[in-house]
Amino acid sequence: MTSILVVEDNLDLAANILDYMESCGHEADAAADGREALRLTGRHRYDAIVLDLALPGVDGLTVCRRLREAGDGTPVIMLTARGELEEKLAGIEHGADDYLVKPVALAELEARVRAQVRRARGEFTRTRLRVGELELDERTHEVVRAGRRVNLARADFLLLRRLMRDAPDVVTRGVLEEAVWGDEPPATDTLRAHIHRLRRAIDHPFTHPMLRTVHGVGYRLVAPDDAPA
């Protein structure tokens, strides 16, 4: 049975989400603010967290960041009243795995939760991938470029894994979205926001960029030695 924490200060909405999740066979707890959310995650291990962005006191971005800093990789689906790219980027930068704009369709939210939980439970294999100076260990989730460790959120790790498996071929947007979100495609601009953060992590500290955009098609990963001068 999947255990879910719903962090939402709108008590009516929180009650509706809890009732729906429980009707789908999940266990669900609720927190009305960020401090309570951090207290509960410190005591219990959840399979997924539904996290409102605009919380009183400690906001959703801070909650997500503190979880990631503490090594908690629980999938986080962030909720917000607005859908601007800047907000999506902020949520993803702080470690969110998915993003939904209110008003939320409960069936879609539950489907997103299931998709994230499936990926979290099935992502550990014993394969090590390498593209040039970039290495990825699927068992430990360690990513290293040129001897320097690269820290990635779970969704970014899944994107990089898909790109490395197909490198140096182009991977379409649809294939990348399926690698992270399965049959429940994300909101507009979510993939672009994740790619933006992934590029910052694996390219910006280094001289030669590896993650390339193929406009109108998708993205590809190229070893520095194979990149055009």
TrEMBL record:
SMART domains associated with the record: REC, Trans_reg_C
Domain Response regulatory: 3-117
GO biological processes: regulation of DNA-templated transcription
Keyword presence, DNA-binding: yes
OmpR/PhoB-type domain boundaries: 126-223
Annotated CDD domains: REC_OmpR, trans_reg_C
Ranges in a coiled coil: none
GO molecular function: phosphorelay response regulator activity; transcription cis-regulatory region binding
Name assigned to this protein: Response regulator MprA
Protein encoded by which gene: mprA_1
